[in-house]
Design brief:
85 residues, mainly alpha, two-stranded parallel sheet, 3 helices, flat
């Protein structure tokens, strides 16, 4: 029997910085991996929260996207910290 992979499309933030999701409508521990098409904040912005809430699988993306994510996610994490104050 073949193993079934569980994928989920997760959006991040709007360009204006508004929160678009404070909680996921699924359990992050139940997905196997994330396929990230590109580094735009509306696609990658909730990766830190996804990880904090239990996702532990790999994130598949391109090397160019990885290079951009370092700066983008640092900024996103800072914004999310401010939202919890």
């Amino acid at each position: 029997m073949a193993h079934t992979r569980r994928l989920r499309h997760v959006s991040g933030r709007t360009r204006s910085g508004q929160k678009i999701r404070t909680a996921f409508n699924f359990d992050p521990e139940t997905i196997d991996c994330v396929l990230l098409a590109h580094a735009h904040i509306d696609h990658s912005g909730l990766l830190p929260r996804l990880s904090a809430w239990g996702f532990s699988g790999p994130v598949y993306t391109t090397s160019a996207t990885i290079d951009l994510l370092h700066a983008i996610l640092k900024g996103s994490a800072h914004i999310q910290e401010k939202e919890t104050e």
